[in-house]
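[Q] Does anyone have a clean structure-token version of this?
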Amino acid sequence: MGKIRDFFRPQRLGFHLVLAVVITLLLMLVAAWVLKAYTQHGKEVEMPNYIGMNGNDLMNETSEDFVFVVRNTIYAKDKPEGTVVEQDPIPGENVKKHRKVYLTLSSPVPPTVEMPQLAGDITLRQAITILEDSGLELDKVIYTQSENVNLVLEQYYKGRPIKSGTKLNQGAKITLEVGADVRDIDAEGDIPVDDLAPDPNDESSGENFYYNN
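[A] Here you go.
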């Protein structure tokens, strides 16, 4: 009991405080060393560029530096199936070894989109913008004599009318029937340039007329 009372004597309080600080610092140094060893701090490598390579080949290879994970696939019609189009981390970034590299691969299957409603009070220029925003493309325009000049009268896919909301592959080509103020329209739906009478109040008039050849 005497030793315990002696240990807590006020005369030795300063010594104990110094001892506590030293022990705390030693514990912090040991913890930092352990953390550094665990995370391999300082042992970083530059991330290679895998974009354009075959993702399936990367998945089948055994890498000593990285673990490859396919995170997503996106439609890329100009690239072979399975080509790496995106990677995370990006090329050139300094990363630790044995980390996961997330790959986005190309797919030959386009996603589906919904056909918008274009026929009604939408101008040709507006319809083209809506088509592009929807992931669709304009195939051709057929002009029909109508009081609704430069407005979309009907929408077609592969020669048949198509309703809004119909699922189509991204990039599908849509034909539009547009009203025009003309005197003569030939049997094929062509309109001579000199016969066009666009709506003067429509800013798109005279700029976005297409002809069915």
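[Q] Thanks! Anything notable?
[A] Residues 192-213 have pLDDT under 50 and may be disordered.
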